[in-house]
Amino acid sequence: MPRLYNYAYEILSAEIKKLSKEDLTGEIGQKIVMKRLEKLRMQSGEPVKLEELRELIVDQYPTFSEKVLKEAIRENNPAGKTILLQLGGLAALGIAGLVWVANLPYPMIRKPVASVAPMVLLPSYISMDRNYREAIAKTEQADQLINKATSSADINLGTQRVAEAQRHLDGLPVWFLGYYPQRYCTFFSCSWKFTVDEFERARKRVGQIEAKAFQEKNAQKLLTEAENTITTAKQQYEQATTPTDKQQAIADWQAAIDKLEQIPPATLAGKMVKPKLAATKRDFQKEAGLAEGSKRSFTFMEVAKQFGNLALKSSATRLIALITAFC
User: With contact defined as beta carbons under 8 Å apart, do 32 and 82 qualify?
Assistant: First the structure.
């Protein structure tokens, strides 16, 4: 370790600069003393003693303050401060550990502490209060978002809120049910007293909202898939060059319509698709009818073509037979 620590060096340096402005020694004396002090900073060993430090300075600054010298010597021994800081840190860590143990969710630990030093349990009281309030608030938000949704964004946000509500309910320990910390609630005006029945009702409500959210998300997925399939089928139908390709596009189109009809009408997706479904079916029936007519025309043309070829072959055969007979 250095013989002169930085903080002690700074104390001496400030005093030397101050005296240099007043003393005739001036800049030369300042450089000499600062060089000596710098050398001490570079040396390793025992911290410099008061007598040695005085000898290094007073030959250039005879009026150097004894008080400043002693202060520098006092600050040049950081080992004591380090030990005190370490002891303070250990003490704080020990206290934090005791508070943590006291706030564990075990009545056998909490009851004796609550009767003697209830404010030690303040962290867990705050946590319970926050979890209770957040569980109620998040459940209400999720209920509004899911059951009165107007868009898929509401469904997604409602799903997030119900997950948060469940997490806060999980943060309420079992012993908390029916528990009411009198002193804490006197200071912080809490109004929570969760009974077992209330807790079960809250969990049941959260479960119902989760089920509803799951159904809504599945319905949204069906709607998205069906709409994408219909769009693709329409494009394939318009670009088809053969009746076979058109029939395949129509089959995909019909499958997508069937999927739309599977969406539960009570869901947001079901309500959204209801006014679109009739128009989608009408477009499908129109295009399917045209495709069927086109197929029939194509079939008729093929039959006529084959009949013509057959007639041509028959006429040629008769002509050859007549020529042969004549010859």
Answer: no
